[in-house]
Amino acid sequence: MRKILLFVFLIFMGSAFSQEVQIALLKYKGGGDWYANPTSLPNLAKFCNKNLNTEIDTEIPTVEVGSSDIFNYPFVHLTGHGNIILSPDEVENIRTYLISGGFLHVSDNYGLDEYIRREMKKVFPELDFVELPFNHPIYHEKYTFNSGLPKIHEHDDKVPQGFGLIYQNRIVCFYDYECDLGDGWEDAEVHNDSERKRNEALEMGANIIKFVFTQ
Questions:
Q1: Which residues, 6+ apart, have CB-to-CB distance to 191 below 8 Å?
Q2: Is there a contact between 126 and 167 (Cβ–Cβ < 8 Å)?
Q3: I need a surface site. Which of 2, 19, 137, 215 has the fewest CB within 10 A?
Q4: What is the pTM of this model?
Q5: Mapping DSSP to helix (H, G, I), strand (E, B) and coil, where does residue 72 land?
Q6: What CATH number was assigned to the domain covering residues 2-214?
Q7: Which of 106, 202, 94 is nearest to 161 (CA)?
Q8: Nearest to 88 by CA among 114, 125, 36
Q9: CB neighbours (10 Å) of residue 55?
Q10: What is the tens place of the pLDDT at every residue in 158-172?
């Protein structure tokens, strides 16, 4: 917990971007493919370092939901296509992490929605995911998205939505649904997305990072 509190202090002092930061991929149980997008976070880190002047380590560690190591990372990313199950100890651990200053980004890789909603309700039974309006700062931090999240992959051809869990006036979790930012961050040859789509995904990812580091 100490590192998260130190990081929050650095943000308050306005020097967060001058300190090397590690972000992490969240590993969970239940059968879902938590490992689905291996190139996404390194690419996002490189993009942010180039365009936001951050110093994010491009070597991305994996951390388990129930591990005390999660407190070493101010930002953790969760993705996948299927089931996720959190044990009572994991629920308690990630709740403590989030209310202590940590941040969770969830990117639905298609098929995650019903499971992440169910499990996050265990973590915050008093909260519901709230769709963020298009004028929310997360869509305008560095790059402007006047219509909210970009549509990276079609899936069910639904409108992409960005949801937040808001605890004591702070967003502790941002969830991109029907958007698939994580796929958009991957190497170009993985999904054969256009350069424009990949750039949109990376720009929105940079907005999330900047928002997390300065909210």
A1: 153, 183, 184
A2: no
A3: 2
A4: 0.91
A5: helix
A6: 3.40.50.12140
A7: 106
A8: 125
A9: 14
A10: 899 999 999 999 999
